[in-house]
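A quick aside before the break. I want you to see a complete sequence-to-structure record at least once, exactly as it would be stored in a machine-readable document. Don't worry about memorizing anything.
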Amino acid sequence: MRPNNFWKTSSLISLILAGVLVVMALLVNMTPLGNSMWLRVFFGISALNFTLRASIPLILGALSGILCERSGIINIGIEGMMLAGAFGGFVAKVATNGWPLTASLIFSVLIALAIGGLMGLLHATLSIRFRMDQIISGTVIIILATGFTAYLFDRNAVAEGKFNALPIPGLAQIPVIGPVFFDNPPITYLTLLLVVIIHVALFHTRWGLRTRAVGEHPRAADTVGINVNRYRYVNTTMGGMLAGLAGAFLVLEAVGQFQEGMTAGRGFISLAAMIFGNWNPFGALGASLLFGYTQALQNELLLAGFTDIPRQFVSMLPYVVTIIAVSGFVGRVRPPAAEGKVYETEGSSE
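That is the input. The structure line, written in tokens, reads:
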């Protein structure tokens, strides 16, 4: 298959497989197929619920990578930005435990966004202003976040309360689909909405056209008056904010507390979802759901008492699938042409 056409298949495959998963879930939960224990393990409502919860930080991380890399900045520091956002959200929640719960949670999300944005700005500054190798810069972000959060973490601190589910009237009562997609806390809804917003913005607005031009042909973009490095600064900062929101999800919606290293490789899986989805928001959504499903499957197999294979091998499943997906598709998909390349404006120090 020709590489320049492969992106159409690579992004569609993830969406098609995600659609197959939903169809199988409908059949299993609404027909006699549900009498099979193994089909319930693989396609039950419990598996779907866990799939969506596990996918949210992956979707946000993938969107973060898309914003950065579509403008030409490689961002492997998503893991660190996510962890920093989680820690910032946790510290803010602990500090405002005495506030009304809703106000405390909203404030904590804003702090997580700010911390993620600052990490993104740091990555952009190192990559653009100081021309540091962008892989090294991303690695620095990860090491920095890991070290500082472990050093500053107060193990006696407790965050009180987290976001609760907000069922959408009418939609939440739809069989199978309703409880999975329309009975969730607010960050989950916001994440799904962001997929649509970012897709429309990237492919149907002037900002999106300029962002893609900066990531593909920065010299041509500069020729028509687009400030290349400004777009890269802004997009990388926004990408950091999305990664910070992923961290906020982990602390304020999923777990409720902070744990050292709680991102557990989600930033790297997000990068795999971004590549598998060919730097396309909907493709990344489908890929994230598939990777989230492998985590759900791991959970369901353990709950079902599946002991024929050692627990550690079952726990490896999400990471093995990630490796297979990336090794099978990387080299066939085409990243933005100017990705990772420093752009120097003539007569400028940048």
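Two observations worth writing down. The two ends are 40 Å apart (CA to CA). DSSP finds 15 helices and two strands in the chain. We'll return to this after the break.
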